[in-house]
Write a structure and sequence with these properties.
This protein is an alpha+beta fold. The chain is built from 14 helices and 31 strands. Helix 4 packs parallel to helix 5 and helix 11 packs across helix 12. The protein binds guanosine-5',3'-tetraphosphate.
Length: 532
């Protein structure tokens, strides 16, 4: 039994996010190597959903199975217990990533120095900004000819809408990459490309004006570094971790993940500055980790890969108190008590039964259909954690039942799959029509396949040309009713029975916004992002 304060102070729960191919998997792997959780490179690599994933279901299923084990990777480093939550790199699973971000306390964002800020990075950062999640940025692939570092910093500020502060600085790049100068502790790390060893060539530089620097990196590069550092010190404020913790400032590191370069110093800084488990907002109050009573919420549900067993694993983030095995907890949505005899934790690749868990930890609970994303467990208090919004999907299709004899199975299947968060389900009350919304095409194939194999229901999808789903809100009941009446055919209900308007086009949406100033139109279900 640990002391709750100590257990909290020990933990760092975070996720690595990136546009596919920037180096998330490689970085994850290096972290695990540092943490001693894996011994050889390549162990994580094999698990990722490949970029080319198309309709090879066996492959998807296999990868889904493996990714249960790698959903959370816990490891120890310098006396801390680190919970690294995996996020799928594949664009079609972006919604999964957004939800995982609700369960972490901070994020490391990987950027490819050649490509700069890419589309998916912007979306992911939007979610972090919305939640004020502290972000550290790692600019990767410095061994390649990339963009000018100052240009990259500008691009980060403009596209990601966050202030940045370099904590390390590259000396040249690409073929002539010499290393990085750590602005935090005034140390120079010399680059020595090696995929297997950790670069240990660290030189302390008390004064970068010193001529010894010229010998280490050539006079030309030394002078460039001096100029750059002067500029940085002139432009950026002195480093202070508070704005970082408030989500207003992102420290930036440069390095090369595949060459093990610049990673350990980032990890060390991460350990020093990243927040321990933070308070979380619930509907009636904020919940603090050091509270004695246990509470937590479900942020992810994973179906069993064996279709004969329909049980699933629900991932619980512990928010306060201590979670214990074989203890009854209160499911606040279902208003019933549940206990868990085989809660699992995930240490690297191994799943094992856990007796207790603390704030910041993630526990896998075997579930036979009690949970949906966002559900809250407590010791009896009636609260519901907030901050797990649904975002507007990008692709909409109507679900068409191909076997009238199996409509019950279809109803049940689509409900369970959408509870798991595979896709969003919108129901048009008129005629009980079901519109399924996703971020990518892959989900439709997954749904069709799983409905057939797990529920014995056959379906097809008819594309619907919708631009966005807008959650509609208004204090003016009669205006809301009028809007719903006029828009009848495009009005649906989401899983929580909120009113949603499926806007056929941007043009029509803008028109409605102008016609109905009494109404609020939102692209997420929790109304925290900017309005349309
Ligand atoms: P992801 O998870 O973000 O999708 O990226 P991943 O780590 O898989 O990295 C994408 C590619 O970038 C990989 O190459 C990886 O080796 C490479 N990479 C990662 N870090 C660096 C770096 O610092 N420098 C350079 N030059 N490349 C880097 P791949 O060809 O797709 O795979 P592989 O066959 O090399 O493993």
């Amino acid at each position: 039994m640990g002391n709750i304060q100590e257990e909290i102070a020990k933990r760092r729960t975070f996720a690595i996010i990136s546009h596919p191919d920037a180096g998330k998997t490689t970085l994850t792997e290096k972290f695990l190597l540092f943490g001693g959780a894996i011994q050889t490179a390549g162990a994580v690599k094999n698990n990722k959903i490949t970029k080319t994933a198309t309709s090879d279901f066996m492959e998807i299923e296999r990868q889904r199975g493996i990714s249960v084990a790698t959903s959370v990777m816990a490891f120890n480093y310098r006396g801390r217990l680190i919970n690294l939550l995996d996020t799928p790199g594949h664009r079609d699973f972006a919604e999964d990533t957004y939800r995982t971000l609700t369960a972490v306390d901070s994020v490391i964002l990987v950027i490819d120095c050649v490509k700069g800020v890419e589309a998916q990075t912007e979306r992911l950062m939007e979610v972090c900004r919305m939640r004020k999640t502290p972000v550290i940025i790692f600019i990767n692939k410095m061994d390649l000819e990339g963009q000018d570092p100052f240009d990259l910093l500008d691009e980060l500020e403009v596209k990601l809408k966050i202030n940045v502060r370099p904590l390390s600085w590259p000396i040249s790049g690409g073929q002539s990459f010499k290393g990085v100068y750590n602005l935090y502790d005034s140390e120079l790390r010399l680059f020595n490309p090696d995929k297997t060893k950790i670069s240990k060539e660290v030189v302390s530089i008390e004064d970068i004006q010193d001529a010894s620097l010229d010998d280490l990196v050539t006079e030309q590069h030394a002078n460039q570094l001096r100029e750059d550092v002067e500029l940085i010190n002139g432009v950026y404020e002195t480093w202070d971790s508070q704005p970082y913790l408030d989500g207003d400032l992102a420290p930036v590191f440069f390095g090369s993940a595949v060459n093990n370069f610049g990673i350990q110093e980032m990890l060390d800084t991460f350990i020093d500055i990243a927040p321990d488990p933070r308070s979380r907002p619930a509907d009636v109050r904020d919940v603090h980790p050091e509270e004695e009573a246990f509470s937590g919420f479900i942020f992810k549900i994973h179906a069993n890969i064996d279709p004969r067993h329909r049980d699933r694993i629900a991932f619980l983030r512990v928010c306060s108190g201590q979670f214990q095995r074989n203890t009854f907890y209160y499911h606040t949505r279902l208003t019933k008590k549940l206990k868990f005899s085989n809660p699992a934790t995930f240490l690297a690749q191994d799943k094992s039964i856990v007796e207790e868990a603390w704030p910041g930890d993630v526990v896998g609970l075997y579930d036979t259909g009690n949970f949906k994303i966002g559900d809250t467990l407590t010791e009896g208090e009636i609260i519901q954690f907030r901050g797990i919004p649904s975002f507007s999907p990008e692709i909409f299709k109507e679900l068409v039942n191909l076997d009238p004899m199996k409509s019950k199975q279809l109803e049940k299947g689509i409900k369970q799959l959408t509870d798991e968060g595979v896709a969003q389900l919108f129901i048009r009350e008129l005629g009980n029509r079901k519109i399924v919304g996703t971020v990518g095409e892959l989900q439709f194939e997954v749904i069709q396949y799983r409905l057939e194999h797990e529920y014995g229901a056959k379906c097809e999808f008819q594309p619907k040309r919708y631009f966005k789903a807008c959650w509609i809100l208004s204090d003016n009941e009669s205006k809301l009713d009028e809007f719903k009446r006029i828009k009848g055919i495009d009005m649906v209900l989401d899983k929580d029975k909120n009113d949603v308007f499926l806007a056929p086009s941007k043009f029509l949406l803008d028109m409605e916004i102008a016609n109905f100033p009494e109404l609020e139109f939102h692209f997420t279900s929790e109304f925290k992002t900017a309005q349309v």
